[in-house]
Write a structure and sequence with these properties.
The structure is a single chain. The protein has 112 residues and is mainly alpha-helical. The chain has 2 domains: 79 residues, dopa decarboxylase, N-terminal domain (Up-down Bundle), CATH 1.20.1340; 31 residues, no CATH class. Helix content is 45%, strand content 0%. The chain is globular and about 50 Å long.
């Protein structure tokens, strides 16, 4: 993936996340999936060729979203909130994009 494709796909995924967060109140707080239901939606084998982003996003909408508890839902009051602010999503993007290994000072002084 070159930087131009990364930029294009990144914009599409940011839009998807923003749309998800904008409409999260319409989703049930907790998954209504039954045991085995998500697995039954998955193919028996991984794809032999890379799929396009449209297919991946369709799988997110069809398989992943119905099978998760929406911790960022305004009606979620159990356990504790985690990564609820969209600023933290952007911070994760920066951290992943830098790929810094902050295991000790020598590997990345500014990450320790």
């Amino acid at each position: 993936m070159d930087p131009a494709e990364f930029r294009r796909l990144g914009h599409e995924l940011v839009d998807w996340v923003a749309d998800y967060r904008a409409g999260i109140e319409e989703l049930p707080v907790m998954s209504r999936a039954q045991p085995g239901e998500i697995e039954a939606l998955l193919p028996a084998e991984p794809p032999r060729r890379a799929e396009g982003l449209a297919d991946i996003v369709a799988d997110l909408d069809r398989i992943v979203l119905p099978g998760i508890t929406h911790w960022t839902h305004p009606g979620w009051f159990a356990y504790f909130p985690a990564n609820t602010d969209l600023a933290s999503v952007l911070a994760d993007l920066v951290s992943s994009g830098l790929g810094a290994q902050g295991m000790n000072w020598q590997t990345s002084p500014s990450a320790t």
